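Interim report, section 4.2 (structural modelling).
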Amino acid sequence: MSALPPGLAQELAALLGEGWRTDPGERLAYAYDNSRREALPDAVALPSTREQAQALVRACRAHRVPVVARGRGTNTTGASVPVAAGVVVSFERMNRILDIRSGDRCAVVEPGVLNGELQTALAPHGLFWPPDPTSAAFSTVGGNLACNAGGPRAVKYGASRDNVLALTAVTGAGELIVCGTATTKGSTGYDLHRLLVGSEGTLALIVEASLRLTPAPQQRRALRAVYRDVSAAARAVARLMAQPVTPSMLEFMDAPCVRLAREVGGADLPADAGALLMIEADGDAATLPYAVEALARAATGDGLLALDEAADEAARERLWAARKALSPALRTLAPGKINEDVVVPVSRIPPLVDGVQALAQEFALPIVCFGHAGNGNLHVNLLYDPADAAQSERAQAAMARVFALALDLGGTLSGEHGIGLAKRDFMPQAVSAPTLSLMRQLKAVFDPEGILNPGKLLPD
Amino acid sequence: MSALPPGLAQELAALLGEGWRTDPGERLAYAYDNSRREALPDAVALPSTREQAQALVRACRAHRVPVVARGRGTNTTGASVPVAAGVVVSFERMNRILDIRSGDRCAVVEPGVLNGELQTALAPHGLFWPPDPTSAAFSTVGGNLACNAGGPRAVKYGASRDNVLALTAVTGAGELIVCGTATTKGSTGYDLHRLLVGSEGTLALIVEASLRLTPAPQQRRALRAVYRDVSAAARAVARLMAQPVTPSMLEFMDAPCVRLAREVGGADLPADAGALLMIEADGDAATLPYAVEALARAATGDGLLALDEAADEAARERLWAARKALSPALRTLAPGKINEDVVVPVSRIPPLVDGVQALAQEFALPIVCFGHAGNGNLHVNLLYDPADAAQSERAQAAMARVFALALDLGGTLSGEHGIGLAKRDFMPQAVSAPTLSLMRQLKAVFDPEGILNPGKLLPD
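Predicted structure of the assembly:
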């Protein structure tokens, strides 16, 4: 049973035909995302064209019914959970790659294209789209743009916001807007397309994206550097980022991660390792050895215990084994996990990691940190038993303190996951009152009735 | 004689002390910019602190008096000319570099710091700030941000908008907002700081900027490639941009430019040259030869007449002589020049250049094109005699057609100069009506009384 106004349901059924779903079973499939939160929408719409998307928003606006855009629901913050019910708009049928222009370093796509499908289509052109979230194989470009998805490569190539040229979108007022141009430079009025990136479907529904592509490097080489402690590793990160050869990945693991990878995952790591960096360079056969040499030099300093280089792709896989052993190993500690992706300036990684370990002690819960060190973007994983009410409460309290710590260190709440439901209550700590008020007013311009993804990103 | 309300003049004189100027001679010094347009402000304010800037905006808002932010007036579009009079706010006293953090790749500056001064201060840290407009020695960081300044290096390192992490600013409502964080990744709410970049002082006054820095390459090497015609050069540009070694500069000159450089400037260029590319790579001693080799390979193809490499810095200067001979040579053609910086996708450079030459014929005026080919950002220079009314009229009409041509080719009005007064009447052609309406509404949120730089960027 749908709670939509009958007139609206009829109108949208006529508009969308077979792309209009109100069966409870089908609605359930669009009720959740990777945050494990869940809320049943009143209906699911699968538009095939921008005209359908625009007509849908206009109809919902007239009835003040919520509209929640959805890629494939891989986000971790609850941003695609329809907490106020209404219509979930899934872009799975708008999944065409419309154009690839290699000389212009540009691809034009519909929002429902999977990141992984796009990379496959770009490979024969010698190009790639930089955002590489863990979910890349099954997350959409539209969803990547909505939360400003990043990934390990962002340290060299930027996140989603840095890799989009233009967007066509339907605002909450039902207007079709065209933001930016498919050129790599532009200074023509207000920069609206970057404003839409990371706005989590609260301002407009993206119906077409012109993406900025990068020529694919021919090869990559990995280094694994093990350090005595976090400080030594963080100083190495600062040295690595202050020299001209930017690594194509620069991943960090703290002492509990290293221990887990060794003891549970069976990774080959020294017993006294207090921190680990995975460092990668990419380039061509001629210059890659020099790049690796420059990175090895920068990685070397007081507190380095071991530096291993992968001579080939198989050796690279062996070096990455420690990182890959980590996620399964985490599950052995506790059934539940809160994974938040705070960011601090690179120089503040040591006080962040130390502070997190102090919180782990204070709240008597294991917390491990790993992630994208070159951007200061650490994934803080707090492990607990969700069936244990006291633990759950402590976990929430500890995570609130992690956010406060990151903000104190000049950082921010999220580097690539976004705010969604998970962090919106912390927005007033991260963003000053006048700035937050301005954000609310901007939201009201794009979405005067407040129908787009209500309850997300901005606090009540 | 100032036309300001007496109460406001008294209040601001008390607020700013010696930093408040109403003498006509002093006002005249702030009346113009490099567009050669001119309009006398009622007063000039030289704030020393953000608190003064905020109090000033609040006072002006109460009296609905225009506030026009100004760096050093080097912009070419009239964006800093106070056409509605009011108070010009010059940031020349807010010119401190507050912090340089090399490990974080970040500098924190006040808006009045000169771009050139900043580069000098960064050099000992082995870092630079990428925007390199021609005016770098005497233009301010605040002004660079206001118009999203670029320059030749933007092809590899981005323009101003790509190189800022966070901004503190005073809105037209007199609110102090803090946009972004000084981290290289962020997904916390709406992206306001990039919205302020390129907004030409119409949304807020920037009072502090956290800039994204890049490690300075150790060396550079230049290639000069001469082609039979524009098509051959443009195909080379597409090849250069589709391979992984991004040039640090990729500058284009069309046939009339080459002819002028040879015949008037005395540059050593073949007589049958139809187009020229200046190609530069940067890097370290070990890898630079490979980069130059990759660029030379990409530059080579049908229609290449000559490819010269500069073995050292002196040879590099000789290769650049053709480019440097150009500006003085242009002056021999006509006393007046309109220089606009349209952008098209790289693949559309040939129809842009051909179309411009057709317009030169149609309007019987010399037009030459040169500029930043790797971004498709060409400077279209139309030469005429401003004392000749018929020529002036033809020049305006021809430039309107140049804009229409760039838009037809999927491009935009400006790559790095901005809109200001010069191109605002063309905004309705470049930006769709619903999008322009949205821009106006956003402006009203930031600046409810419309006091910030009235008459600029958005058309009436």
